[in-house]
Design goal:
Layout lengths: L2 H29 L28 H17 L5 H13 L4 H25 L17 E4 L4 E4 L5 E3 L9 H8 L2 E4 L2 H4 L2
Antiparallel strand pairs: 1-2, 1-4, 2-3
Helix pairs in contact: 1-4, 2-3, 3-4
This protein binds magnesium ion.
Length: 191
């Protein structure tokens, strides 16, 4: 590729990765830091928990329902794994007919994969632990296009939810990251 095309290609990858970052922010707000077991392995019988025979005969919508129910069941039993979460997101993606819905589900697949990588990194002693978001019961949260999540402090300033940055004026955050979008909790959004 020419330099110009290479630059545009890198920017295009970054644009999509920023969307994945935004989805990671929404996941973090919804679920907090998650540290599920991997649930993977070359010698494990991975789909036994689905309790469904003949998965190859199922439609996409049936597979999405089966693996969503499986995730819910494992979560209720305290046995949720990243394998189950990613399998559910994969199933939701492959059930899509509409390209826009498929695209949104694929961003979710990518974001779950990123969350999983972050969990593995934390286990290795690397990676960031989110702390700030837990200090308020109903935090006011703002999302940048780059996927950063900022929480409103009592004095009106904003603080990035990883808790490692100093609080900043909202105007400074907007200057650095551009647009800020309010993250409305799902309970308030009525979803
Ligand atoms: Mg999904």
């Amino acid at each position: 590729m020419s330099d110009n095309r290479t630059t545009r290609w890198v920017a295009d990858v970054q644009r999509v990765l920023n969307e994945v970052g935004g989805e990671r922010g929404r996941q973090e707000v919804k679920w907090g830091e998650q540290n599920h077991p991997n649930g993977t392995g070359g010698t494990r019988s991975l789909l036994r928990d689905a309790y469904e025979p003949n998965l190859d005969l199922r439609t996409g919508a049936e597979l999405a329902a089966i693996f969503t129910a499986r995730t819910d069941r494992l979560a209720a039993a305290g046995r949720l794994t990243y394998e189950a979460i990613l399998t559910e997101e994969w199933a939701e993606a492959i059930a899509c007919d509409d390209p826009a819905e498929l695209r949104a589900e694929l961003v979710q697949v990518a974001a779950v994969a990123v969350a999983w990588v972050q969990k593995i990194d934390r286990e290795q002693g690397a990676g960031i632990t989110v702390t700030a978001i837990r200090s308020q019961p109903n935090p006011e949260l703002w999302l940048t296009d780059a996927g950063h999540v900022w929480q409103r402090c009592d004095d009106g300033s904003l603080r990035c939810i990883n808790g490692t940055d100093q609080p900043e004026d909202e105007s400074d955050v907007r200057r650095r990251f551009g647009r800020l979008r309010r993250l409305v909790p799902e309970s308030e959004a009525g979803q």
